[in-house]
Amino acid sequence: MQPRDLFEKILSFYGSQNWWPGEGFEIAIGAILTQNTSWKNVEKALENLRHNNLLSPKSILNCDDELLVELITPAGFFNLKAQYLKNLCRLWVRNPKPNREALLSVKGIGEETADSILLYLLNEAEFVIDAYTIRISKRLGYGDSNDRKYWKNFYESNLDKDASVFNEFHALFVEHGKRFCKKQKPLCSNCFLVEDCEYGKINRV
Ligand code: SF4
Fold first, then answer.
1. Could you tell me if 91 and 135 lie in one domain?
2. Which atom of ligand 1 is nearest the CA belonging to 197?
3. Alpha-carbon distance 100 to 118, whole Å?
4. Are 100 and 136 part of one and the same domain?
5. Which has the closest alpha carbon to 25: 111, 91, 114, 89?
6. Are 42 and 105 part of one and the same domain?
7. Span from the CA of 140 to the centroid of ligand 1 (angstroms)
8. If DSSP codes are grouped into helix, strand and coil, which group holds residue 171?
9. pLDDT tens digits, residue range 152-192?
10. Ligand 1: centre distance to CA 135 (Å)
């Protein structure tokens, strides 16, 4: 199955995911806070920031470090993430439309975070690769690599460069990874992709 057909199939099953939750610079804040934690925890931290009017780069830069750490504590790794947020805000006040290279030069911003910001906040056609995408893609039989660059190149060269498709596709991979293609025990027997999936055909009962 070609990636475009996979996209249509997953989309018709789950429907549009309307990502990313939130709007404006809050998207970039969420992209950092969600590193190594669940979105549920991020929501609590975002709520704290919202409550204190701390959703803009300038307000975060002006915020006392200790208060910032306290407010984002629910998201975990709070000392580091507070620094990462301030690093991003320093870039953003100088350059509110950074390119990928500029984002990746910020300490605390890796490829997944950079591409999430570019795609969901700046509407750039950058395919976001995360653990869900790699796991599902490998099981479907598209390749055996664990390298994010490999998969980014795979999807970007097999799909039209369309930010709206990249946006939806990534969100759908996350949904499918949570609902069926779980890390430990994927639900292959009930999965609507099983006939197109190398792993699923062998592992269904
Ligand atoms: S058939 Fe199994 S391995 Fe394949 S996509 Fe579905 S849940 Fe994942």
1. no
2. 4
3. 7
4. no
5. 89
6. yes
7. 7
8. helix
9. 999 999 999 999 999 999 999 999 999 999 999 999 999 99
10. 10
